[in-house]
Write a structure and sequence with these properties.
77 residues, mainly alpha, 3 helices
Length: 77
């Protein structure tokens, strides 16, 4: 490993692969993005970050959203 985190500190890990994993910015973008976000929410997957949320956000906003997701996850456990 890279030594970034100890294996004993990992409480959950799962990889899911899907054929359709990226929303293309075309005429149906907003509708398709809403469908994708709803699918992830129903699957219990929290989206966080510029790529996952399909938004161009500054680093301070990305950190703020990451902290909000961490608080949500900690509250659920």
């Amino acid at each position: 490993g890279m030594g970034v985190i100890r294996r004993a500190d990992v409480c959950y890990a799962r990889a899911v692969r899907d054929t359709y994993g990226y929303v293309v910015q075309d005429a149906g973008y907003r509708k398709n993005l809403a469908v994708a976000r709803a699918w992830f929410e129903a699957a219990g997957i929290l989206l966080c970050g510029r790529v996952a949320e399909h938004e161009y956000i500054n680093m301070d906003v990305a950190i703020e959203r990451g902290m909000a997701v961490a608080h949500r996850l900690n509250a659920e456990s």
